[in-house]
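hey m, so remember when u said the C-alpha cells were messed up on ur end? i reran from scratch. heres the input so u can diff it against urs
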Amino acid sequence: MTRFALGPTRGPIGLAIDGSLVQAAQVSRGRSGKQVLTSATSFPRRSSETPTSDEILEIFGILERHGFHGSEVALWSGHAPVVSQFVDLPPRNSGAPVDQIARGELSRANRLDLSSFEMAMWDLPEIGGRSRSAGSQSMAVLLPHAEADRVVDPFVDSPVIVRSLEPLSTALARAVAPAIHAGVVLAVVLHVGWSATTLTVVHLEPVERRAIVVYERRLGEHGMDRLVTDSRAWRTGGMPAVRACLRRLSRDDTPPSGPNFTDLRSRTTTYINALTLELERSLQFVQRRFAPLEATQCILAGMCQGVRGLSERIASHLGLSARAVTPLEIMEVDPAVHSIAGTPEMLLPLGLALGWGGEE
C-alpha cells in the first residue's frame, strides 16, 4: 500500500555546541512547502571540553524532552574551527584543474598534507570593480580530518547521525539573508560566541536574496569566555549566575546595583572597546578589497544580548546600522517556542537547520 506524508516533514536538528553552551533548532515543512521553526532550545553544559559519547546521549535526551524529533543533525562545533582564506585561481573556463590547484594552495599555506583535510570553496561575486577576466577569486574553507574526527567520533557510538559539519559563517549567512536591508550590498554579521567572536561579511544577491560569504575572521581573544570566566559572578555562581546577571543588565533601563553587576559592567565596557578596535581593523581590510563598496549594516547574533552597549558602540564608532536579529524576524515560528526564538542565540542553529534539502 502506498503511504503519503500528509503531515509536516521535519528536517535535521541544527545543533551548535560551543564551549559551555548547546543551542538547537528544528524546522518543519508542510505540504505547501512553507517552513516553520517548530523546536528551539539553549542550555548550558557542565564542561567546555569536546563532548563525550555519554554527553551526546544526555544532550539528545534533553532535546527529546523539548519536542525535537529524529536522530539526524546538522552540526557546528566550536571545538573544530575551520580555516578560511582567499584563493586566486585560473579562470573556470580555462580547463585548468581549479579544485586541485586550490587544494595545493591551501596545503602549502597551512602546512598540511594534501589528503589531510576537507575543503569547500565558492567563487566570490564580481563586486567592487572586480572581474573574473583574469582569473577566479574564491573563498575557501578547510578543516583537518583530525579536528573533524575529534568532534564527530563521539556521535559514532550513539543513535545520532551527523549529516553535515558546517562552518559557522555559511550557516549564519543562510539564516540572516532575509534580514538584510534592501539596497545593502555588503553586510556584517557579528556572532558573539562562547569561545570566540566571529566576523563574517556577506554579499546579498539582489535577485535570489542569497547571502554569499566574502570574508570571515575568527576573533579567538574576544569570546564571551574572556568576558565572564574570571568575573565575580562566575566565581560565586558559575554560568547560571553570569547569565542571570547579563539578562538583567541587558533588559533593565535602570542598571541594577551590586558587586556582581558592577564588575560585569566594567568588564563589558573593556570588552566592547577592544572588540570594536578589532572590527575596525577587519573592516578596513574589507573596504580596501571591495572598494568602492562599503558595508553599511551590521547584524548581531549569538550571545550579543549579554553585551549591553555593543550595537550602540558599533554604530557610533564604525558608522554601521547595528542591531540584534532573531528568528522571529526570519520566518514563521511555532507559538510554543516564541520566547527562545526571540533571542539572537538561535540564529546559528536555525541556519544549520535551514541547510536541509540542499537550501543555500
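this time it looks ok to me. The longest strand covers residues 35-44. if urs says something different then somethings off w ur setup not the seq
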